[in-house]
Amino acid sequence: MKSSLHFCSGVLLLFLGLWPPTAVVAEERLDVPPENAFSIVLIPDTQAYVGAGTKSMPEDPRPVTNKIFAAHTEWIVRNQQKQNIVFASHVGDIVDINEERQWEVARACMDSLHGRLPYGISVGNHDMTSRGDSSLFQRYFGSERFLGFPWYGGCFPKTSEAGPDVSSNNANSFQLFEAGGGNWIFLHLECNAPDDVLEWANEILKRYSDRRALITSHMGWGPLEMPTTNDEFISASKGRMKWKKIHGARGNTPQQIWDKCYRHHANLVAVFSGDQSRTQAYKASNPGDHGNIIHELLQDYGSGWLRLYRFVPLEKKIQAITFDPKTEILCEGTKLVPSLEEHQFELPFAP
Predict the structure, then answer these.
(1) 37 and 119 share one domain
(2) What is the DSSP letter of 97?
(3) Looking at CB atoms within 10 Å, which of 8, 141, 204, 245 has the fewest?
(4) Which pLDDT score is estimated for 158?
(5) In terms of domains, do 71 and 13 share one?
């Protein structure tokens, strides 16, 4: 996705004797989508809270804020028409500490989207207790918040065997929307969703098998085995994770969720995740049981990058575009993931 600006400016500066080292290369920015394209925005983990009681500023007297989170949702609103954004999905870890002040800020940020476009949230491990109590999430983002919207499909309806504060009231939800001339379902599963939730998810995906499906679940790709040192979060072999954080013996690892749910559905196009800030960005494409290719995509940028997936049906592709919402400059690499191709890439898509 490199622009010809880099080449042209380089040739001119070389001709003038200014290259290197004084050359200033134009930075590539987010472009306008082609006709008939539509976009889905994935909001990475939004744990960058500052102010009183936060991890970074526990003694700070100022109110809690999250400028990165606010910048993400504000950009989506400003560019909804320009980029033809039809859906926004939050990968989870919407808060850093599971307490009232951060949930109030989180809801204020998501209020920017409320009533403007369909959206869903995967409940991350920071959004609940280790046993799966997501009662604060349910208070701020429960099903009653969404019942009036025609795109809201519903949520896991049962009372979990672990109690009413676990898995229920929008902790697992689905949304229905139209885009690109087709019908879609977007499923949001909590971190390490237990078997009863996966049984419900399988039923929902079968019920709407005539729709293209997308799923966000907080844990997906990262260190294959559970790291035993901090360095292993960066250096260990990466893959579909075989370890878990939530729900104890009831919880499922990402690999188990793939085996019990994802791989069985011919209509599934992509699965999105966050959780692993030290893996940061990762992509894989694997066949499901019906031969359909399922894209598995991790994005967890703590420094402010935002990920847009642009579906271009006429060209049978999906463009993954990672950019700074303040400047719209494209990410050309990070310290952890220096390769441009891990942040700007294309995926095949059969409409």
Answers:
(1) yes
(2) S
(3) 8
(4) 73
(5) no
In angstroms, how far apart are the furthest CA atoms of the chain? 73
Specify whether 24 is located in the same domain as 152. Answer: no
17 plus 56 within the same structural domain = no
CATH code (residue 90): 3.60.21.10
pLDDT tens digits for range 62-92: 999 999 999 999 999 999 999 999 999 999 9
136 and 280 assigned to the same domain? yes
Report DSSP state, residue 20.
T
What average pLDDT does the structure give for the chain? 92
Residue 203, SS3 per DSSP: helix
* pLDDT recorded at residue 21: 38
Work out the pLDDT band at 288, boundaries 50, 70, 90. very high
How many Å apart are CA 126 and CA 94, to the nearest integer? 8
- 144 and 220 within one domain: yes
Residue 239 and residue 206 in one domain = yes
Q: Looking at residue 49, what is its pLDDT?
A: 97
Question: What is the mean predicted confidence (pLDDT) over 283-303?
Answer: 96
Instruction: Answer yes or no: are the C-beta atoms of 171 and 134 closer than 8 Å.
Output: yes
**Strands (E) located in the chain:** 38-43, 85-90, 119-121, 152-155, 173-179, 182-189, 212-217, 221-223, 238-240, 268-273, 281-287, 293-299, 306-312, 317-323, 344-348
Instruction: Quickly list H helices, the chain.
Output: 4-15, 67-78, 100-111, 135-141, 195-207, 232-235, 254-260
For residues 197 and 296, membership in a common domain is answered with yes
Distance CA 331, CA 30 (A): 10
Running DSSP on this structure, what letter comes out for residue 237? P
- The total of structural domains in the chain comes to 2
pLDDT of residue 13 exceeding 70: no
Find the domain containing 24 and state its range.
1-28
